[in-house]
Design goal:
Two copies of one chain form a homodimer. The first copy, chain A, is about 45% helix and about 20% strand. With about 300 residues, chain A is an alpha/beta fold. The first copy, chain A, has two domains: about 5-80, Winged helix-like DNA-binding domain superfamily/Winged helix DNA-binding domain (Arc Repressor Mutant, subunit A, Orthogonal Bundle); about 90-290, D-Maltodextrin-Binding Protein, domain 2 (3-Layer(aba) Sandwich), CATH 3.40.190.290. The interface of A and B includes residues 61, 78 and 92 of A. Chain A binds a DNA duplex (30 and 30 nucleotides) through α3. Chains A, B: This is LysR family transcriptional regulator.
Amino acid sequence: MQLKSLRLLVAVAETGSFGAAAKRLHTVQSNVTTHIKKLEEELGVQLIHRAGRVRPTSAGLALVEYAERMLSAHDEAVSLFKGQEKACGRLRIGAMETTTALRLPTILAAYHAAQPDVDIQIKTGPTAELVELLLNGQVDCVFVAGRLEHGRYHSLKAFSEQLVLVGSTPMTKMPSSQALLTSAFLAFRQGCSYRQRIELMLASQGVNAGRIFEFGSLDAMLGCVAAGMGYTVLPRGTVEAHQHRFGIHTLALPTSIANIDTYFVAPEPETWTPALASFAETLRDAVVVNEPQLTAS
Amino acid sequence: MQLKSLRLLVAVAETGSFGAAAKRLHTVQSNVTTHIKKLEEELGVQLIHRAGRVRPTSAGLALVEYAERMLSAHDEAVSLFKGQEKACGRLRIGAMETTTALRLPTILAAYHAAQPDVDIQIKTGPTAELVELLLNGQVDCVFVAGRLEHGRYHSLKAFSEQLVLVGSTPMTKMPSSQALLTSAFLAFRQGCSYRQRIELMLASQGVNAGRIFEFGSLDAMLGCVAAGMGYTVLPRGTVEAHQHRFGIHTLALPTSIANIDTYFVAPEPETWTPALASFAETLRDAVVVNEPQLTAS
DNA sequence: TCAGGTTATCTATAAACAAGATAGTAGCGA
DNA sequence: TCGCTACTATCTTGTTTATAGATAACCTGA
């Protein structure tokens, strides 16, 4: 059973004529006859009343209903890839908690305005987890800290963040090693690249990582820092966006530790759905506006 | 885009290998490559990651979802015709009010027990209307009074009914012409063959059809007869089935007027869905039990 | 019965397909 | 780094299938 034959069957049922069906689908009447006949032989049922008025039999009518389901699914699938201008379908994005909170809203708003027919799904998690999701094909693209060395993946430097130390009291210089040792550190769960930076920072101060509490959400973490539970390390922009809600204070970190780049990573562009391609374009536009010195690889 | 290619795509996505997909669908690996490649060219997107693990790209995953919709519709359609033993789908039956009330329940119960997966739809109406429905393909088969002369239709004498005169008082002989003239007659709406019999009966008594009230339902009609509104003519069996609920009385009519045959009419058997074929069989069995002298044409 | 329109059949050409053989490639382990 | 293995891509060949056009058969309505 071929989609071509079913399309002809539907056309015959609708036009009530083999010739008209042939014309509609740009072929000749003899081919319509052949296709219908083949369908009938395949199913062992007469599908079309030929004598007098040409119209579908009960069996034909029943098949037409299924044919319409198949054809509409087919046409929808085709429009997923060949839809002109407007993309449709689904876009699954993986992003770090901080990126989701700070950077994505603007971009998603712009994207949704451009492509209202795309269903957007966001999964948040630490870098390592996101890379895993991408490798498993459970998301279409991710925003992670650092480019993915794995070949056959497309990386685009999306955002540059400045990490700052966040505490509950104003700071003018780095807390003493003693203060750091006795304080707790709050970080995202295992795998978050920011957490590595915390450990790096502590090491640079000659302090071994002490107690590190793990959090799943940004709000919870900042709330706890504000409550004096300890320190954390976050992008400056993220903190500033929330500073009016929490009683928190920041301290700049040394450049070598502070600078952290967020990359947009996705499989090769040849594998992109129009929805993803369009998202990458939206992202590129947004990045160019913010910092013209973008790097693709 | 062919169903065959989509089936291969799904198999590749599920097995994670071209060779395994080929084996599953009883073909060779080179054909799988060709089909997938053709799909990719057609859609302008890479569907399968070939390097390392063979797995679908985001685009491939999206297409697989549509493919599954198409294929399941296809398989369902095939099982509609090729399903062994159990028929499925839909059966649209047209029947007269009296047949529906008196004869169908038994048959439908037997049919439903045999074919539980068939959705049954009943449309009731007078003979002329039912024939119209059948000719238009809006029902799959009908029960009507009299065989359909139109060629290319399959007729089977299903039931023989004895029409009786129904009134609100006990009758031992035909009411007088005078009584008939001053009485109202209750009948189904225009097109009901029983109504023609009423007029025939009145004519045989030398009376012109007087007031005839039209009803849409049997219950309403019998209720009105019981209330003394007038006479009606109905199959004996139908009346007997309802006699305990209404205060009504019957009088046998002359054989020439009384005998009326109900036929099962459907298009040619070649056009039957398994659901309809199975129904015809159930009916034939039921008819043989009741009156072995059945006639098919 | 005839005319007009419609479907079925036939045929030659072109295209598509399936299977097998072979070449190329990535990943793995020594 | 070097094979080894398992996999996909490509090429070839014979066969099947699709297409368009011409023609025959058919039905319907006048």
